[in-house]
């Protein structure tokens, strides 16, 4: 891995985030939400692909909107990016829970990553991993999708005496665990690698537990980018959460993909 891959990931995530903020401020009152979201997705995608083509022309790129650069070779260097994670939230007035993801995978693991939270003025990256705050002392807080929370999460929360906290994008939810705003994030509704690669890289660098819901490792740069479930949590919660997930009705079959 090149020494400045961490810095590049953070800089590109920040630049794409600034581009999105400018677009949002300029056009929010002029276009409807879907048009704004589509324009933001396209603008950030073009910015990231142009920058990676210039800065890392030998590396492959896997984006939510397609591939670029050299053909991917299993285990080689590939940038996995989500130009706008949380299009719906970006398009809604004053919602902060959307993100930009930039990650570098090699040997099927995330090696460098950054998540920009533009509305909060933050970039979380693997170059200077954030320090997870101390446990808050109350019941565990589990971030879930505000529109499609998995049905089994209610049983998991009940088993642990936890409360659920609805949030927008996957990047925002995993970043909330990193920042200590919640203690865990469970997902089983289906995602792709670009939805989680960058925030998982940051979470791992911060010392959090990351895995599939059956406890198996998260693997990136696979031929099929579908990655249907994951768990991110404080390390001390990993064992009880995995046990509660395994016992909960409606949990996805082990190793399903």
The major beta sheet can be summarized as: 6 strands, mixed
Helix-residue proportion: 25-40%
- Low confidence ranges: none
- Strands across the major sheet, in which order? 2-1-3-4-5-6
The ordered string of helix (H) and strand (E) elements is HHEEEHEEEEHEHEHEEH
Helix count from the secondary structure assignment: 7
Please identify the structural class as seen in this structure: alpha/beta
Strand content: 15-25%
- Give the name of the CATH superfamily of the largest domain: Fructose-1,6-Bisphosphatase, subunit A, domain 1
pLDDT averaged residue by residue? 92
Radius of gyration: 17 Å
Count the domains. Answer: 2
- Ends apart, CA distance between termini: 29 Å
CATH topology group of the largest domain: Fructose-1,6-Bisphosphatase, Chain A, domain 1
In CATH's first tier, which class of the largest domain applies?
Answer: Alpha Beta
From the 3D coordinates, which CATH architecture of the largest domain would you assign? 2-Layer Sandwich
Got a strand count?
11
Shape: globular
Overview of the structural elements:
By secondary structure, this protein is α/β, with parallel strands linked by helices. The chain folds into 2 domains: 5-125, Fructose-1,6-Bisphosphatase, Chain A, domain 1; 141-247, D-Maltodextrin-Binding Protein, domain 2, CATH 3.40.190. It is 35% helix and 22% strand. It has helices spanning 5-27, 33-55, 87-91, 153-160, 170-178, 193-205, 238-247; strands spanning 60-63, 66-68, 78-85, 99-106, 109-117, 122-125, 141-145, 163-167, 184-187, 209-211, 230-233. The strands form 2 sheets. The protein has a 6-stranded mixed sheet with strand order 2-1-3-4-5-6, sandwiched between helices. It has a 5-stranded mixed sheet with strand order 8-7-9-11-10. Helix 1 packs antiparallel against helix 2 and helix 4 (153-160) packs across helix 7 (238-247). It is globular. Pfam families: Inositol_P (PF00459). Keywords: Magnesium, Metal-binding. This is 3'(2'),5-bisphosphonucleoside 3'(2')-phosphohydrolase. It catalyses: adenosine 3',5'-bisphosphate + H2O = AMP + phosphate. It comes from Saccharopolyspora gregorii.
